[in-house]
Amino acid sequence: MTVITIAIVDDHPLFREGVSRSLSEIEDFVVVGEGASADDAATLAVSQRPDVLLLDVSMPGGGIDAISEILARSPQTKVLMLTASEDIDSVVAALRRGAAGYVVKGSGSRGLAEAIRTVVGGSRFISPTMRAKVEQSLLDRPASLTPRETDVIELVAEGLSNKHIGRRLNLQEKTIKHHMTEILSKLGASNRTEAAIRWRQGA
Description:
By secondary structure, this protein is an alpha/beta fold.
């Protein structure tokens, strides 16, 4: 049995404790930490290296703003937004920052477990009630890459590997991997080849 480690960051203690209790009852899920702020999330990312970090949107420090730092500190962690907000702009912003999914708090423990397994498996998860609107919104809005991300995707389009891109830009390979996670999310691509194609088409 493969164990999935989970950290939960939400500034409502009763909700956080309830989620922790529900997930702990699932045989292959292990809750390795809890927090209440963006700073807590960044700390947990380093100290626990969880497979999945459940993150609220509205909390001290801002959940969406915390995503990039979490992924920079622990690139293998999947950030799954767990929130009451169904604001499409928030969903799109979270996904473009690198979140692996977005779950509405009313989904229940079964829906949350499905979301966790989905993102651990390498796929994006969006609550069914929001999926169509979010996907359309992602298509309607051209992604805005940072200058460094633009440097990376241009070298990807030339066929360079992460290692060679790192050498060209004088950056560590893990930093390039983090930039690629951001690029894939912003361009709505599932792999680097698709991202390069979308970039060249002006996605």
